[in-house]
Amino acid sequence: MSERCYRIVIREVGQRPPFGEVVDHLYGVGSNIDTDGDSHTSNATDWTWLYMCDRATVNAPVVEAMLSEERNGEMIVTSADMRLARLAADFLAMRSGGKIETVL
């Protein structure tokens, strides 16, 4: 049986916060976090996909955020951990001027 994955849709996403600020907000400054995405630096704001996972926690849930390829201005945040998904989505919506529309 697969683990549930929560999906939060943010509409009307504008300029995204720097990649590194998203990581720091979710896990704290200086945390040992595995990250990936299409950001050139931790200060870049033009990223369209990010991946985060706490290295210090066994079986830590992954958090991903990506701009929708089908719908302009829409971002989707996913994670098996609802608290982390919501924390990421709230931060991204606040910093980008977006609005949380759907939580599944």
Architecture overview:
The model has no long low-confidence stretch (mean pLDDT 93). By secondary structure, the protein is α+β, with helices and mostly antiparallel strands. The protein is built from 2 helices and 6 strands. The protein has helices at 19-27, 82-96; strands at 6-11, 33-37, 49-54, 63-67, 75-79, 99-103. Strands 2-3-4-5-1-6 form a 6-stranded antiparallel β-sheet, with helices on one face. The radius of gyration is 13 Å and the shape is globular.
Tags for this entry?
104 residues; alpha+beta; 6 strands; globular
Number of helical stretches of at least 4 residues: 2
Radius of gyration: 13 Å
* Strand order of the biggest β-sheet: 2-3-4-5-1-6
Q: How many strand segments?
A: 6
Major β-sheet, in short?
Answer: 6 strands, antiparallel
Separation, N- and C-terminal Cα atoms: 18 Å
User: Given the C-alpha coordinates, what overall shape results?
Assistant: globular
Q: What are the secondary-structure elements, in order, as H or E?
A: EHEEEEHE
Mean pLDDT: 93
